[in-house]
Write a structure and sequence with these properties.
Blueprint (H helix, E strand, L loop, with lengths): L3 E2 L11 E3 L14 H4 L17 H11 L6 E3 L14 H12 L4 E4 L10 H6 L4 E6 L5 H7 L6 H13 L3 E6 L5 H14 L4 E4 L14 H12 L5 E4 L1 H5 L21
Helix pairs in contact: 2-3, 6-7, 7-8
Length: 263
């Protein structure tokens, strides 16, 4: 079985290809879909994972079979910079391997400073990589309640700033948006710090009905009012566009492949 695959549905908006190196996570996010997707209980998913069996060998076989000119995301299931049994060494080795095949890559993590140990590898990709973080809450207590094992909001933003200042293209994923006011404060903070190049904006999807009480059209208007004057790269996800049909968008803001890493 290959480990590089083409995501389906909403996941394909984030990346044309993906690879999951670990099938567990220590972040314990309340909204995480992975336990359900893997048919596991929370107890059997939220733990310190080991790398998938022979994942690097299989990854190299995949890369030998096909040249990838569009990005491979690490990852949709499991966070490659959570607390792993191998201290994220498989992540580093996978990145080195992907770079040796001149493959474009995106990394999405809530691991904060753990990402910085591989900054030298990120830099070796040049323009073929973008590194990002999911940003959900500005308030530390709320973040801890919803994402107890993940890095704090400030640590994630500071990590993005270090990466950005090191010449690495950065992105922020605003999905889920649980409290719009928190997401807007995070956007303001990242603009103030100039830590993010590309913003991916979504919504909260089907979590205990919380999304039903949010004015998504107003949220999107507020997002654009912040990001457009800053001339940032923006992608508005389909799920948010569907609930804010009266908000006019530029073509560049609805093209999911416009700002991805590529050869």
């Amino acid at each position: 079985m290959p480990v590089i695959y083409e995501p389906k549905g909403r996941a394909n908006e984030y990346s044309p290809y993906a690879c999951n190196l670990y099938l567990g996570c220590t972040h314990g996010c309340k909204y995480c879909y992975a336990p359900h997707a893997l048919q596991r209980t929370a107890e059997n998913y939220f733990y310190s994972p080991s790398p998938r069996k022979n994942v690097l060998k299989i990854l190299e076989k995949d890369l030998q079979k096909k040249a990838y000119d569009l990005q491979i995301l690490l990852s949709f299931i499991g966070d490659v910079y959570c607390e792993t049994t191998d201290n994220n060494q498989t992540t580093r080795n996978a990145l080195i391997l992907l770079n040796s095949y001149h493959t474009p890559v995106a990394v999405l993590s809530k691991g904060g400073n753990r990402m910085l140990k591989d900054i030298d590898v990120f830099q070796s990709f040049g323009k073929r990589i973008c590194v990002g973080s999911t940003l959900t809450f500005f308030d530390d207590e709320k973040s801890l309640a919803w994402e107890p094992g993940a890095a704090s909001p400030d640590e994630r933003i500071q990590t993005l700033k270090v990466l950005h200042e090191s010449g690495i293209r950065t992105f922020a994923s605003f999905e889920p948006v649980i409290e719009p006011s928190e997401s807007l404060r995070l956007i303001e903070k990242t603009l103030q710090d100039d830590s993010v190049d590309h913003y991916k904006i979504g919504k909260l999807n089907n979590y205990r009905g919380l999304d039903k009480g949010i004015d998504w059209q107003e949220f999107l208007k507020n997002v654009l009012a912040l990001l457009r004057p800053a001339k940032k790269q923006i992608y508005i996800k389909e799920c948010l566009r569907a609930l804010a049909p009266d908000v006019p968008l530029f073509e560049s803001e609805t093209d999911s492949k416009r700002y991805i890493a590529r050869t």
